[in-house]
Specification:
Elements: H1 2-17, H2 23-33, H3 41-63, H4 71-91, H5 99-121, H6 128-161, H7 165-188
Helix pairs in contact: 1-6, 2-4, 2-6, 3-5, 3-6, 4-5, 4-7
Length: 191
């Protein structure tokens, strides 16, 4: 029984991040790595792991009702994290190692967003080991799948089009910046 529930929630975490409803989280992860290539795998892994640890913390605190922030506020703040990252990608020539910290800080915000989805499934009762742990592991696996796909596409597109990393980053970051600005405006109308 435990194994089947664990696997079910692992799959739930993966599908939560890899679906159209999780697109804001996907774009955040993708724009965080837009300035890197497959050769930066270690940095990317630290960035993704920092995000996962941080969102796991706020997800837990939100589910335990220790941290309570209205869902519509959280949903409005999430596009700001994406916008900030896009702007940073466009204007900071050499990113420092603090991107791991920024990813963690923004992961705190995204974790509150994940908690809204999780609470739709479990109103009051959930098990840390049967539900929450595999859900978070599923999100991490989903993010690693996304990163792998994006880095593979990035490499192919850059080779085919002869785009430099800077050009790729500019094109991608500007596109995502426009999408996140739209989301921010749209979500602010719901406050």
């Amino acid at each position: 029984m435990f194994v089947s529930v664990f696997v079910q929630h692992l799959k739930l975490g993966i599908t939560h991040i890899i679906n159209i409803n999780g697109l804001d989280h996907v774009l955040f992860i993708v724009v965080m790595i837009a300035v890197y290539t497959h050769r930066d795998a270690k940095k990317i892994l630290w960035i993704i792991t920092s995000f996962t640890i941080a969102h796991s913390l706020t997800l837990l605190l939100s589910l335990l009702k220790i941290l309570i922030i209205p869902a519509n506020w959280v949903e409005a703040i999430i596009p700001l994290t994406i916008m900030f990252t896009c702007i940073e990608n466009l204007y900071i020539c050499q990113l420092q190692d603090y991107r791991v910290i920024v990813s963690g800080i923004f992961g705190l915000v995204h974790g509150m967003g994940f908690s809204n989805s999780f609470q739709e499934i479990y109103d009051t009762e959930f098990s840390l080991t049967e539900h929450l742990l595999p859900f978070n592991l599923g999100i991490e696996v989903g993010q690693l799948i996304i990163v792998t796909v994006i880095l593979t596409l990035q490499k192919s597109i850059m080779q085919y089009t002869r785009l430099t990393l800077k050009q790729w980053n500019t094109l991608f970051s500007l596109t995502v910046l426009c999408v996140s600005m739209y989301w921010f405006i749209l979500r602010c109308t719901k406050l």
